[in-house]
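If you are new to this repository, start here. Below is one unmodified record pulled from the training split, so you can see the exact layout before writing a loader.
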Amino acid sequence: MPNTPDNPSYAEVAGALLARWPETKLEPSLDRIQALVDLLGHPQSTYEVVHLTGTNGKTSTARMLDSLVRARGLRTGRFTSPHVESMTERISLDGEPLSQEAFVRAYLDVAPYLDLVDADQPIPLSFFETVVGMALTAFSDAPVDIAVVEVGMGGAWDATNVVDGSVAVVTPVAVDHARYLGDRPSTIAVEKAGIIKPNAQVVVAEQEPDVMAVLADRAQEVGAALLREGVDFGVVHRAAAVGGQVMTLRGLNREYAELFLPLYGAHQAQNASLALAAAELLAGDEPLSDDLVREGFAETTSPGRLEVVRRGPTILLDAAHNPHGAAALVEALHDSFTFDPLIGVIGTMGDKDVEGLLGELEPVLSEIVCTQNSTDRAMPADELAEVARDLFGEHRVSLARRLDDAIEQAVTLAETGGALGESIGSGGVLVTGSVVTVGEARTLLARRHG
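And here is the target side for that same chain:
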């Protein structure tokens, strides 16, 4: 069937979305998304919602929770951002991203209302707001039993905050998006606390004391119940294992022993404890069996989160893009891998704390290849290399502006033992610095190696 205005292609829909106000250009208001869901008939009120915020770990936690809920035989919708490779990843039904055809249908469901909102607002609906509207409508049309919704940035004025989550999840809060959210965790926490709604149940990761105080004040203000990692639930024990880790978690109601999680690092065990607590709250008086929890965690995936995409040499992808995420990545590398040398391929965004990110990575990377992804927001590889040389030294930094060239260069260094040839046969490559960089690397490697 030919593509027409009434039957657009996926590429045309993606183009129409990208032509909207970009998600990186923010105007803090819920007016536009509220007007859209008003016209759509409030689709977000037709299912139960878990709303997630925090600085790092949101997507992995959302994916684990989605898997645990599906193990109960319930239909799920999941909204996450940003995407790794395809825009369709942002909206999932029953654990799977929408097909391109379903994504087009979701767009067509909201398209008649976009111009109406745009005409009535001083600023048009953004890319992100439009995709949020698409997700909330797709979940209602499915219909889903439970939607797992991750904020895009912050909380209070994030477009996802038109939902009223019966359960809110707050992953660790640190500094990111400082231009928009502030440069202190406690300041950022005020914005993130905005997803805590009256009478909700709130699952909170361990936080700095001033951050926890902000979250506790908000919970008390609106009459929400606060459940804290390390007090009400948490990780009892974990150990690295082939393909991931084995962990024992203390839930809100009981302990679950010897659970296999096919993800690496202590931070993922922490995320798992948050997901488990949220799943228990959703289940209410219905206890979660060992087999159900075991199944839910064993089937969890999280692309681009310390993901092994190739062997010989091993190539790892990790979307760490701020110092807090890089610190968790380094801990997981020490915990689960042994590479000599480990070569970094780094491509960051220009508005990030690049020096802080590189400072966390420096102890574990023998050398780095500085590169850049294809977006306008990318830090030029030359500028990144300048910052890197101050931290790594001239001899440990090289430059390849094209990502494919950077990966090839890093693979060669890993196979030959680095520029100095100090060790051969046990090298690895780590691609990191940005979700976009990781997504583009994932696409390149899949195309090259089938």
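Two things worth knowing about this chain: The longest strand covers residues 234-241. The chain has 15 helices and 17 strands.
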